[in-house]
Amino acid sequence: MSEENVEPIMDNTFVKKIGQQLSALHEEAFAVYKPLVDEIVDNNSNHVQHIESTLDGLLGFAGHPNALVLYKRLCRHYWGIDQSATAFYINAYREMYAADSLPDSHIEKPSMRGP
């Protein structure tokens, strides 16, 4: 890759545009998932496939505060239905987002050495 191809990527305008698009995507995800979570929780649904499908989708956005609120709310609801499955979703969140914020002593890091 030549230097002239790298320059536009480093342009401040480009970075701002990507940030704006990412922010818009998070807002759209919140708008899509909020009614789904509200419906599940408000109707006290125990439809496991629907709950898990919603959690699967939300996990990709749970790094954003609004989506995290929905994710936690749905996990609290699901806890009363299947604690083991809910623990899986809590751990999935921690592995995806929270591991970087935990002290090193709490994280099992893979060895970079060969066998």
Look at the helices and sheets and give the structural class. Answer: mainly alpha
Secondary-structure element series: HHHHH
Annotation, overall tally of beta strands: 0
Mean of pLDDT:
83
Oligomerization state of this entry?
single chain
Helix content: over 70%
What fraction strand? under 5%
**Radius of gyration, taken over Cα atoms and rounded to an integer in Å:** 19 Å
Terminal CA distance reads: 35 Å
In the predicted model, the low-confidence regions spanning at least 5 consecutive residues are: 105-115
Globally, the shape reads elongated
Major sheet summary line: none
Helix count equals 5
Structure description:
With 115 residues, this protein is mainly alpha-helical. It is 71% helix and 0% strand. It has 5 helices and no strands. Helix 2 packs antiparallel against helix 3 (48-59), helix 2 (12-42) packs parallel to helix 4 and helix 4 runs antiparallel to helix 5 (83-98). The longest helix has 31 residues, at 12-42. The radius of gyration is 19 Å and the shape is elongated. The model is unreliable at 105-115 (pLDDT under 50).
